[in-house]
Amino acid sequence: MSKISKFFKGGGSAASKGRRAPSAQEALARLRETEEMLSKKQEYLETRIERELALARQHGTKDKRAALQALKRKKRYEKQLSQIDGTLSTIEFQREALENSHTNTEVLKNMGYAAQAMKKVHENMDLNKIDDLMQDITEQQDVAQEISDAISNRAGFGEEFDE
């Protein structure tokens, strides 16, 4: 296997089998590091572009060859800057997708824990016992209503009886 293919493929299948997949936090950290590195490269290229433009203006009509060389370098730097912009967009998209995936995984885990907890809570509940309890409650509420009605009815004190 050539050195270039080893570099891009990670050294072959035996080496890749021994590796474990990175965690979401590790991958996010690496993506952020890459973003920072590319941002610094962007700043560097922007200053180089400005410097080349100033150099081209300085040489202007006096030294056309030097001015053209400066403009060519500026164009190369702009092309690199454009490529870095595209790469940064791709990395940002991947980082956001990974963050969303990690969030969804955590939500799913927590929902699983909640489902297990609910299952444990409902383990000791019997549907027949619940029905019996609800009937008892209904009966007691009916009794309480009858008592309340009996108390709230006016007593016949002072009324005359009809013969």
Automatic annotation (TrEMBL):
Q: Name one Pfam family in it.
A: Snf7
Q: Where is this region: Disordered?
A: 1-25
Native source species: Corythaixoides concolor
Full protein name: CHM4C protein
Task: List GO BP terms, alphabetically.
Answer: late endosome to vacuole transport via multivesicular body sorting pathway; protein transport; vesicle budding from membrane
**Topology term for the membrane:** Peripheral membrane protein
**Lineage top rank: taxon:** Eukaryota
What keywords are annotated for this sequence in UniProt? Coiled coil, Cytoplasm, Endosome, Membrane, Protein transport, Transport
Query: Which cellular component, as a GO term, is one annotated location?
Result: cytosol
Q: Where in the cell is it found?
A: Cytoplasm, Cytosol; Late endosome membrane
What's this protein's family per the entry? Belongs to the SNF7 family.
Q: Which Gene3D superfamilies match?
A: ESAT-6-like
